[in-house]
Amino acid sequence: MTEQDTLQRFIFENTDSRGELVHLEKSYQSALERREYPPAIRQLLGEVMVAATLLSATIKFKGKLSLQLKSEGLLKILLVQITHDQKMRAMADWSGEVTDQTFPALIGRAYFSITIEPEKGERYQGIVPLDKDTFSLCLEEYFQQSEQLPTKIRLEVSETKAAGLLLQTLPQQEDLEGEKGWEHVTTLAATIKREELLDLSNEELLYRLYHAEQVRLFETQPVIFRCLCSQERCEQAILTLGAAEIKDIMEEDQQASMKCEFCNTDYILDLVDLARLHKQASENFADA
């Protein structure tokens, strides 16, 4: 039986390579139930959710990782955010009729970024060129060129779940034996069938691939779909408008409404809320 909503790391004891396996089911379905996504966008959203989970294993501090695509094509924006403890949210938006477009046709001219935001420390952003036929190939090229780390990524998505495999060389190992070991593990990984990655347990999959190798599996880490929106965050966003604009909203609309694009939750701030925020914004300005 396959693991549900987990991230699990593993290493090869006799080669200089490491790996990760991800399975998303309830978390993937939670993202999809917020909106009726066309199949091509649903596929890509699942792939990016899996990729974000795979990459989150490298976060060694409290913070979050964001994978964002902005496009001039049919797909306008796609955003997946995941925290250091694998709490994730995801959304996408598009315009026009989306049918069965390929990855290049779906995104057109696009910009894709990987952003790491620690709670304490400096923000880091990397740009991923989108010049390959699949999203996974784009990520592999990014790690090869930007990080100088040979990487293989496999992403699979079905109607109800998504799964992924990441293999990567250890950065300190670059000798000839290391290259042979890397070629060996990636050649075997290329034989994985789509159904195997989606349906097999991690132990069974790794045994089928690497029964002659010494593979050490670490503990699974649960992955949860959880939005970060709240009434407090909405109020903070209103405060940034300033006292004058809040007063205009009070006089013209008598309320402010905000909708979370990730979970579709509606937030309504009435006149009482706005009056309190107007007072706070005025005090903040006076103290500045």
UniProtKB/TrEMBL annotation:
Belongs to the HSP33 family. Its main location: cytoplasm. One of its GO terms (molecular function) is unfolded protein binding. It comes from SAR324 cluster bacterium. CDD domains: Hsp33. GO terms for biological process: protein refolding. Redox regulated molecular chaperone. Protects both thermally unfolding and oxidatively damaged proteins from irreversible aggregation. Plays an important role in the bacterial defense system toward oxidative stress. Gene3D superfamilies: helix hairpin bin, Hsp33 domain, HSP33 redox switch-like. This is 33 kDa chaperonin. Disulfide bonds join C227-C229, C260-C263. Under oxidizing conditions two disulfide bonds are formed involving the reactive cysteines. Under reducing conditions zinc is bound to the reactive cysteines and the protein is inactive.
